[in-house]
Structures are given as structure tokens and as C-alpha cells.
Amino acid sequence: TMAHSEALLVLENFIAGKFVPCSSYIDSYNPSTGDVYCRVPDSGKEEVEAAVKAAKAAFPIWSSKSPLERSQILNKLADLIEHDLEAFAQAESKDQGKTITFARTVDIPRAVYNFRFFASSILHHTTECTEMASVGCVHYTSRAPVGVAGLISPWNLPLYLLTWKIAPAIACGNTVVAKPSEMTSVTAWMMCKLLEKAGVPHGVVNVVFGTGAKAGEALVCHPDVPLISFTGSTLTAQRITEKSAPHCKRLSLELGGKNPAIVFDDADLSQCIPTTLRSSFANQGEICLCTSRIFVQRGIYSEFLKRFVAEAKKWKVGNPSDPTVDVGALISKEHLEKVRSYVKKAQAEGARVLCGEGVNSLALPTGNQKGYFMLPTVIAEVKDESSCMQEEIFGPVTCVVAFDTEDEVIERANGVKYGLAATVWSSNVGRVHRVARRLQSGLVWTNCWLIRDLNLPFGGMKASGIGREGAKDSYEFFTEVKTITIKH
Ligand code: NAD
């Protein structure tokens, strides 16, 4: 169905500082209404070729600017996005289905902060130097930008994750060709409109819109793009690894998770319950860091479950533009069906669905009847081997199970292919450190969730990724190091 009331929004690629139309387009849906409201360029080899050429041409001048000059431009861009924060938040909410509140308080402020953060951090790096007095030598390392960086991002936190790559890439002096998700391209296109005013020279940031199979793969296979920074699913990462192997490309891969929360019987439930609800259902559960397996120590299991389910039922699902709504729409019809199928599977296996999908009814406003909505869903008594406990669901579904001992819960928490984020709830400091060390997880939050210092490494183990992002980590990824020896 087509939205008749408003004209379709038509996006264009941004190449060499200019918006350029594409020969074919993809429909993009408003997840909260089910209407097509936007057309996204269906770019392929040709468009990627033009963008890489522009990025290559811009590299010599951009890479020779001082870090301070680049830093000032990044800060200006941050100011411009912040100035339009409300418009960006509205666009992100409409395009992705997330609540306006989440877009206003998380997505867009973080996109602004990504530029500010790397504008600052790029000024503070030092390289190493060693001395070998006995042979009259000093050795030092020098770092230089690599060239044209290919950046590929997912649909769950569109501008937030795209800028988390663009900011460090250009701060380090690289030029970029970015490909946002074809399902959420609008805010990247809006950002392109601000680049010139911020002082970003033509060709430094190029954005090609389109699908992964066409535009994404053309970027991954392009011989003049020596590094690819990718955030998305593990399956796509495997494909990217294969396709880039003949070129020996440098890869940064931020992938999926199956994140455990471990709740010991000495946990402060007044903190743990509201935070674990957020970690399960924030952004419709569509955050790579979302909790989807909650292990609760047996002594407090029934109390936890009772309180958790009662609170989960209070989460309001509905029109994302309503500021009182907690859960918006899922990204697509297909994704909604996939998430629902996990709940059905769990039921068929004998698990108990305590609230949400199939249990409670969902009343939607008139305009949202065809949107992709789902109630926060809590499943209990599900076996560790079940696909609901093993696979990333990426929706508002969380499983709660009981455990007895520390050793047991660590083994079970580690018993999945992923290793991205974990939360541990306990007031015993010694236990918290012990458990954190033994969890196979790139991030461990104890007695909290999602509090990040961007200085420190972010990323996953096992099938959750390769490489880390952060002040030092992104700097190392986006630069090439050289060791130089001087004999006097
Ligand atoms: P996806 O892998 O389907 O797509 C991600 C991006 O890759 C999109 O831009 C897509 O067009 C592109 N792509 C798809 N196939 C490609 C190919 N063959 N070659 C090149 N590019 C290709 O992932 P998604 O569904 O958009 O996002 C959800 C996934 O992202 C979840 O698994 C989630 O956990 C993960 N994620 C991870 C992090 C993290 O930091 N670890 C953050 C957010 C999301």
C-alpha cells in the first residue's frame, strides 16, 4: 500500500559532494503503518565505482590536513546535527519504527557525540618510541591513514552506528564510502546535506544507498577499498570475509549476540528488574547488546519472575511518535514473523510464555493497524538447547531460567556461539570480578547495563565479532602503523 496523503521521499546517493540520482530504486516502508513512504537508490557496481573514485581523489588533501583541522570540522558537523536534532529524531523514528523518545534521547544525541568524541580523541594519540643506546639507535612508530574505508551498517541504530564508523575513519584522515542499511537510509541522507556546511571537503564522505547483495558486495569487492568496517549479522560477516579474502582486506566485524543476564540471590532487585526490562525490550529488543537469556538463582527465581512479568506487562506498545509509548514497531513484516516464530517454537517445545505474544492482546491505534508491532514477551522453562536460548532473536523476547551454582551458570552462559555482552547482578564484589573474568563476552556490565565510556574497547568474542572499536582501537583500525629505526 502507498501513503496517499504525502509525496514519497526520494533519496539520492551522495558522491563527490553532490546528490546524484540512481537508475533504479527500492521501496522503503514506514514500519509503524506498513506504508511505502520512501524510495532508496538501488545502487550497484557503477555507483560504488564512482564513490570510490571520489574518495580516492579526496584522500591526498584530507589525509594531509592536521588532526586539529579535521577535529574542527568534526565538531562543526556535530553542532549542525545537534541543531537539527528533533528533525533527525523524527526521521529515525519514522524510518526505523523506534520510539521518538528513544531516537531523541539515544540515537541522535549519540550520533552527535560520536563526532565530538573522535574530534577530541584524535588530538591525544601518541606513538611508541624505544631506544637502543648500545647500538646508537632509536626506534619509533608512525601511523598514517589507510585510504578509502568501506563502512557498512545495520538498521537497528542507523545514524548512531554509521557515525560511530564515519567519525573515527575521517578523524584519522581516511576518506569513506558508506553504505547504510537499505531499510533505514533516511538519516544518513539528511547528514549528507550538512557536510558541506561543516566544511567536509567533497569526496571525503560518500554515501551509496542500496542492498547488501548489490551495493554492499560491490564495496567489499572493490580493489581500491583496503578496509571494511562492518556492523551487522554473523551470516553477512561470513560472506564479507569470503568476498574480501582475495584482496586480504582489513576487517572490523561487529556482529550479533545472545546476551546473558546473571542474577545472583544477593542482587538488588529494585535495580536489577527495571534495568533488565530495559536491556530486554529497549528499542523493541533490536539492539545487539540486548539481554535475551536471564539466569536467576533458584532462591529468588519465583519472586524475580513474578515481578519481572508484572512490570513487562506495563510496557506500552503503540505509535512510535507518541512520547508515552515504550515499544515501537519492529523493522519489517518479515522480521516480525521471524521473531514470532521463535515464540511459537518455544511453546511447541513445552516452554511457558508468561506474557506478550499469543498471551495478551495488543490494541493498536487506528493508523497503526498494519504496523509491525509485538508485545514484550517473557518465556520461562525453556531448555538451554532450544533455538530460543541459542539463536539471536533480535526482538522483544526474553527467556528466564533458574540456576543453582556459580560454576554452573558460567558454563551455561558461555554455552552459545556468541560472546558480545553480559550483565551480572550481585552485591558480592569478589564474585562479580570472578564471574566477569570467566564470561566469554567482550563486554560485561555488573549491576548496570549500556553504560559506555567510548574510550574503552567495544566488540565481541566468538561469533560476535573480530576487532574492537573505541578511542584507541578505532584509531589503530583506521591507521596503518610503521616502525622506523634511526641510527646516529
Ligand atoms: P545484516 O547483516 O543483514 O545487514 C547489515 C548491513 O550489511 C546492511 O547494510 C546490509 O545491506 C549489508 N549487507 C548484507 N549483505 C551483504 C553482503 N553480502 N555484502 C555486503 N554487505 C551486505 O544485519 P541487519 O539485519 O541489518 O542488522 C542486525 C544485526 O546486526 C544483528 O545480528 C545485530 O546483532 C547486529 N548488530 C551488531 C552490533 C554490534 O555492534 N556488535 C550492533 C548492531 C547490530
Automatic annotation (TrEMBL):
<dbReference type="InterPro" id="IPR016160">
    <property type="entry name" value="Ald_DH_CS_CYS"/>
</dbReference>
<keyword id="KW-0963">Cytoplasm</keyword>
<dbReference type="GO" id="GO:0047102">
    <property type="term" value="F:aminomuconate-semialdehyde dehydrogenase activity"/>
</dbReference>
<feature type="domain" description="Aldehyde dehydrogenase">
    <location>
        <begin position="24"/>
        <end position="484"/>
    </location>
</feature>
<feature type="active site">
    <location>
        <position position="254"/>
    </location>
</feature>
<dbReference type="GO" id="GO:0005737">
    <property type="term" value="C:cytoplasm"/>
</dbReference>
<dbReference type="InterPro" id="IPR016163">
    <property type="entry name" value="Ald_DH_C"/>
</dbReference>
<dbReference type="GO" id="GO:0042573">
    <property type="term" value="P:retinoic acid metabolic process"/>
</dbReference>
<keyword id="KW-0560">Oxidoreductase</keyword>
<protein>
    <recommendedName>
        <fullName>2-aminomuconic semialdehyde dehydrogenase</fullName>
        <ecNumber>1.2.1.32</ecNumber>
    </recommendedName>
</protein>
<dbReference type="InterPro" id="IPR029510">
    <property type="entry name" value="Ald_DH_CS_GLU"/>
</dbReference>
<dbReference type="GO" id="GO:0001758">
    <property type="term" value="F:retinal dehydrogenase (NAD+) activity"/>
</dbReference>
<comment type="pathway">
    <text>Amino-acid degradation; L-kynurenine degradation.</text>
</comment>
<keyword id="KW-0520">NAD</keyword>
<dbReference type="InterPro" id="IPR015590">
    <property type="entry name" value="Aldehyde_DH_dom"/>
</dbReference>
<dbReference type="InterPro" id="IPR016162">
    <property type="entry name" value="Ald_DH_N"/>
</dbReference>
<dbReference type="InterPro" id="IPR016161">
    <property type="entry name" value="Ald_DH/histidinol_DH"/>
</dbReference>
<dbReference type="Pfam" id="PF00171">
    <property type="entry name" value="Aldedh"/>
</dbReference>
<comment type="similarity">
    <text>Belongs to the aldehyde dehydrogenase family.</text>
</comment>
<comment type="function">
    <text>Catalyzes the NAD-dependent oxidation of 2-aminomuconic semialdehyde of the kynurenine metabolic pathway in L-tryptophan degradation.</text>
</comment>
